[in-house]
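Hi V.,

You were right to ask for the full record rather than a summary. Here it is.
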Amino acid sequence: MKFNPLVSFFKTVGLLLTGRLHFPRGRVGEIYDLSDGRRFTIFRQVIVNAGKNQPEKPGAVFQVCFQIAGMTPKQNEVFSLFPIAFFIGLPGFRSKLWMADRETGDCQGIYEWDTVQDAERYADSFAMRFMMLRSVPGSVWYRVSPL
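Predicted structure:
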């Protein structure tokens, strides 16, 4: 099953209207260290409360890093607002942390999904293709990990 951006958009609107969609600010500014010594600063978070047919806790993490092309990290923070409504409503989406390394211009996203299968489908989605189009060629890497 392919992810559909239009269906996702309308589901996102529904999540917003029912109060299940949250943008907490508590982790904004927090430093996230990678094992290779790189440091990212969290600049946005979104959380979707579990629905009736979802597991209580997420079952997988999707981590992606890339270098944005043609934008400063600050410009990317603003630009990254636009695609939000088109992936939050994807099946199995639970949360995302947006991060940037202001020294290198690298960006990172940490997503939580209901299942490993949901996370793996995201890797082949319109959202990932869009991310790759606006990234420095060859800079995108990702991994899916079960929780």
